[in-house]
Amino acid sequence: MDEGDRVTVLFPSLHTTPDKTALRFGEKSLTYRELAGVAGTLARRLSGLSRVAVWATSSMETSVAVVAALAAGVPAVPLNPKLGERELAHIVSDSEPALVLAEPGVALPEGLRDVPREDVTLTGTAAGLPPEPDGEAPALIVYTSGTTGPPKGVVLPRRAIATTLDALEDAWQWSADDVLVHALPLFHVHGLILGILGPLRRGGSVRHLGRFSTDGIATALAEGGTMMFGVPTMYHRIATEVGDNPRLAGALRGARLLVSGSAALPVHDHQRITAATGQQVVERYGMSETLMNTSVRADGERKPGTVGVPLRGVELRLVDEAGVPIETSDGETVGEIQVRGPNLFTEYLNRPDATAEAFSDGWFRTGDMATRDGDGYIRIVGRKATDIIKSGGYKIGAGEIENALLEHPAVSEVAVTGEPDDDLGERIVAWVVPSGEPPSEQQLADHVARLLTPHKRPRVVRFLSALPRNDMGKVMKRALNA
Length: 482
Description:
Among the domains are: 3-179, Rossmann fold, CATH 3.40.50.12780; 388-481, GMP Synthetase, Chain A, domain 3, CATH 3.30.300.30. The protein is 31% helix and 27% strand. It is built from 15 helices and 26 strands. The strands form six sheets. Strands 2-1-10-9-11-12-13-14-15 form a nine-stranded mixed β-sheet, sandwiched between helices. Helix 3 (32-46) packs across helix 4. Belongs to the ATP-dependent AMP-binding enzyme family. This is Acyl-CoA synthetase. It comes from Prauserella flavalba.
């Protein structure tokens, strides 16, 4: 099979149909032979449709629906079951799905009333899978969070999915022998593309837990799991428990690879997991528009707090505020990440203006700010819009201060933002969830000044019982500032 065929045929193992478990959700499982039959049967019914929506519950049926749509060459629009009325109405109007695929028995909201529904069943014996379109054909339309307006539909071609998963095969030494364990939601890149389509492209297996629990992770890894995917909130719970939980520590110790993504994993949690298990969690960096850009390699040096080096086929550069490439690799100079390569999306659906604005001379402007060290490792310091604080003439990354504050024993969780200041331009604000008795504002300021430099200390500390987070565990800093 040449490279062109590999891009066109997303899941070669569905064509060889081995009697090997492909997907397991609780008590439900499908071998590749069974998945080919079930997905192939549904794909024949979907063939010729313009696009379909998938009510993306954490279920076997969601996985089958997406595989069937991809096999039919019909773009799929995964829908977050927690969508509010306004966002759902916008997505349905914008994407105009011909059909919504859903898990049987699940109630759909009023916003999908006018879209024909088809329940996904786990039966079917297709004579063969339909021919798949070429690599530039749209595969998925994933909607962004819409922080500055209505969500935008990111059109991902089949080429982007294939190349990003194959680059991760190289970086993570991912093979058909791997069994991936995770409990990520299935409506976006991390849980669906990496967590379901990734194992299927490799010819491996995935065990989805439905809901995250440290006990579930320990059991699945102890029963043959070799890899785990999670977000920082999951790894924070693991870090909190693993030192006093020999069963969890042993299960993690036996895994081949632990991967964290979707947000930065605090260095303190890295350290606690490593101390208890000997494992060093791998971080990677991607976006809906770019899929995966960088990763710490399985065979490379682990540097907690970094997202590794560019993946095979990905070009990455840092640029200053004028858009001039930054050539230094001193680990200190901050620039915006821009990328180009076959992993990129095609367009924002129905938004040629936004698509054009997102690129500069062929480079996608991520809006993420980072530094690069002498080994080429990228360290994300925050979003250009919310995580770069310009205070007293300095450009300061919020992530560095957050990691420092998390080293204080009285800090459980923290987010750092900037707010207007007549003297400094912006002052640094720390939003702290305390661990026990709250420390004083001065204690935290002195702690940061000692670990970093005085100009990076928080000028204001606000205590909260919890940080506002989205479904992937990312802190919603705009909600804090509001």
